[in-house]
Amino acid sequence: MQRKTARIISQPQLDPMPWRISLPVTKRQSSKELHRLSTSSKTADHILRAPKCDKYQFISNFTHRRLTDPRELEALLKEKGIDNMTFCLPLWEQIDLSSGAHFMPLALFDDCEYDTFDPGVVGFWRDMEVIAITTPYARWRSYTVINHDPCTNQWEVSERNSTTSYLIPRLQLYFPFEDPKKFAERIGTAVKARDTTENAIRFRFLCKHISSNGCFAPGRALEQSILRRAGDEIYGVFKNLYEDYHIGLAVGQHLRTDGSVPIKQPSFSHSLKPPKDVPVDEFEWKRIVHLLDRFRRRTLLCDTNVFHALRLVNQECEMVRKLPMFVVASDKPIPLEEYEKLNLTQTSKTMKYLQNTWIERTTMHLHRLLSRIGNGHFNIGVGRWEIYNVMKLKRLIEQVLYRMQDALRDLLLDSTAAYVHYLVNDCSAVLAIEGEDYSWDGNLIDSPFEPQRPAVFYLLLEMGPDMPYYSTDPDTFPETLRHILDDILRACHFIHTIEPSLMQSLIFAENLYLSSVGLLDCAIVKQREALLEYYHKALLPLQAYAARYAAYRELFFTNVKEFVEQIKNADKSSSEIKEDIAFQIRMRENLEHTVPQCIVIGPFWINVQPLREALIRKRQELAAALLKMLTEKLRIKTADVITCYNAINERMCEKPVSIEHIYDIRAYMEDVPELVVRLEDRMRGILYEYEILEGFLHNLPDADFQQKWNALAYPRSVLKQMVSVKEFHESEVDRFRKQQFADEAAFTASIEDINAYISKFTTLYDVSKVSEMSVEVRRLWKTVQELIDQGHIMNRRQELFEMAPISLNNLYELRSNFSAYRELWTVAADYLKLEETWIGNPLASVDLDGVRRGLQQTHDSLKDLLPLFRDQPQLLAVVEHFIQVVEAFRPNLDIMELLKCPYLEAIHWGQLAKEIGVKGKLSVDVGFDVFLEHGFRDHLETVRRVVVKAEQLRLEQEARWAEEERIRQIEEAYRRARAERRQNRTEI
């Protein structure tokens, strides 16, 4: 508790400037007390003379070391650490207790042992040119000594040719016969004495005005011992001395650990009481008394509770200074979105503490401790503003307000600095980038932008349809980071003060907030500019690095199936495919050595591994697809070879069905050795292609491996099979020879049977059975033709068996005699079918030219048959009958031609029906059989007359149409000419 005392007192007070502590001097201080508080420095005695010692200032031959230039003296003093402001003392100004400002005159501590003469005895100093410094203590200048006051040891000087004079102490006057180094040493001694004295006064004030509340009183045992031996009066004196001593020890211990307070613990053995024979300046001691009195009346630490309240407020402020405002540490790089979420979570907790917990705890501490004091200067229940404005409570709350604002400002400045320090990870190469046209010229593995500290943000490099891109748009980083910083600064402007919650009897405005750091604060602007500059420049190499991966876009989006189809369509050879596979493997290895798994560019840790693996995998897939394609190609080639071997085996192993078949197989087997040699040569070329796969360490599937070795083993199997086939054929030849004898006997019997049947069949001539006769004739003709073909086959086999050929002359004769009979019935049947189609089909679909050709062809065919049947009257009558049938149909052609006239309309068909007496509707879509039923052949002239009339009407109608068209063209030409004349008129 005591270590916090000096820290609290050293904080600023409130009058008249809130950020400074006034150090008033009491008026009730006695002269003896002032002597006790003064320093132990020795004041000059104008009566006693100092002996000649090391301090002696006189120079016997002063022409050797004298100074006449004020600038030389000023330079000498600066070397000793003495500047012109050392002699300055602001009169009647309030001194900050925690500052190093002087409040005692330097002349009070002058050591007169340095004096070299007695001004009252020796008068050569009069009108002497000296170097002095006067008010306003600007600089050392040359003056003339006029007079000396022995009571105050003041010297009167004036400038040459000037009537203005100045009274200055001895320390501000340098005679030319003095040793300048001793003079500087004299001033330095006085400065040290003054510093020691002022420090002792501050320390005594600090200890005297601290309320210990019995904390440093003697213990219970010591108290009873002294009371028992000496009594109450002596114990009271001992208690005061004991408390003062231990308060001084406690304050001194605190001051040794707190370097922010310019007060040091003086030695207790050192007496502050000046010697009795040293005269004291009455004016200076009155000023000290006045300062002491003001200090007692205006200090806030007049009660123990106030001290404890400020201590707890200070503890709360120290806790605020240590709060984490931003996320400034991470084990590994994280995405911007995650960092933004973490920052939002962290700042939300901190802002909740600042806006609620901090205010509540500070208010609670103040209310709990100040409420113990009750009425007076710290009455928190005051209800009138005019009273509150003059109370120490207002100054105390303002003190707390300033401390809270100071803590808030320290928090924001430290947090902002830590935030920027964390995000700007010290990459000098990024800051050295100039211009917007940066391009990544080096390799993709080594980064010239390695920061001194770990990267902050995680990015994933991906490949897009148009160009590579990052998982987070790099352009969002500067704005997002700036918004995170600015949003926190804005939020800190809405932290309420403690007055409304502490002083509940008074009414305060709702918008009373602690003053925070502004967005345009110099430190914030500097940090923000550094952050934005760093990230704007870091985006240039980041985007340039991604642009380098555009070269891999085509590979990334290559479709393996389409790629293989293109290779197949190009019909490349195996050697060319081998080069393509080797190229894909080389490019895969190149990717492994040129594309990194990750890279750091300034504050960004870029994960390239997924894209790298995708590219390598694509190269592997392409190489594997080519190997698979080559494997399939070799599989097809090998299967083709095996198919050829199987075809040879199947052809040799065919079961012969005849002796011809055996001889065909034998002829084929003569070429088998040559075929096997060709297939072996072909397989050797395929084996070279298999070596390509082995060169790439490609494992063939089991089926392909088995197929390959089967193809290599087939030649031996084929040649071995030939021997077995030849042995089998020998046995089959004997079997087919026996079969030939049986087939020859059956063939002879078939010839006799067909000859007898045809002889019997040619005696038939019933014209009513034309269809049946034509079908049977065609069947017999086919049978004769098959027997002739079979006879040729039998004769070829006879030759193979080396036997005499079979005679086929009787078959040829039979076919020749039967051909005319076949021609008669087939022509008659075909004509009757044609006639049925002409009569039965609609008249519009009947082709008159086809009818004419059919009639003429049938008539000519029948005419050609008449000479062949002169010796057979029955068949000759059949031919003449069918000729008459053909001729009987010819008159129908005229009627059909008239009825198919294109000019006949419904009115004409109606007229025909009416004149001929047909009940029903007639048209060209009716079959000709309808017209024959109604006797149109008997009304040929009527039909011709109606058709001629229809043609005339059509001609008249066409003439009328032509005339109308001519008139229309004339009218159109007239209208066109009139329109042209209207356009050409010049007057309306």
Question: Helix and strand layout, with pairings?
Answer:
Blueprint: H1 5-9, H2 31-37, H3 70-79, E1 129-132, E2 141-149, E3 154-158, E4 165-169, E5 173-174, H4 180-208, H5 220-229, H6 232-257, H7 282-298, H8 304-321, H9 336-370, H10 385-388, H11 392-423, H12 428-431, E6 457-463, E7 468-470, H13 476-491, H14 499-502, H15 522-548, H16 553-556, H17 560-570, H18 574-594, E8 598-601, E9 604-607, H19 609-652, H20 659-695, H21 702-761, H22 770-800, H23 809-840, H24 848-865, H25 873-889, H26 892-899, H27 906-916, H28 928-933, H29 940-984
Parallel strand pairs: 6-9
Antiparallel strand pairs: 1-2, 1-5, 2-3, 3-4, 6-7, 8-9
Helix pairs in contact: 4-6, 8-9, 8-11, 9-13, 11-15, 13-15, 17-19, 18-19, 19-20, 19-21, 20-21, 21-22, 22-23, 23-24, 23-25, 24-25, 26-29, 27-29
Task: Report on the architecture of this protein.
- The chain has helices spanning 5-9, 31-37, 70-79, 180-208, 220-229, 232-257, 282-298, 304-321, 336-370, 385-388, 392-423, 428-431, 476-491, 499-502, 522-548, 553-556, 560-570, 574-594, 609-652, 659-695, 702-761, 770-800, 809-840, 848-865, 873-889, 892-899, 906-916, 928-933, 940-984; strands spanning 129-132, 141-149, 154-158, 165-169, 173-174, 457-463, 468-470, 598-601, 604-607.
- It is 60% helix and 4% strand.
- It starts with a helix and ends with a helix.
- Strands 4-3-2-1-5 form a 5-stranded antiparallel β-sheet.
- The protein has 29 helices and 9 strands.
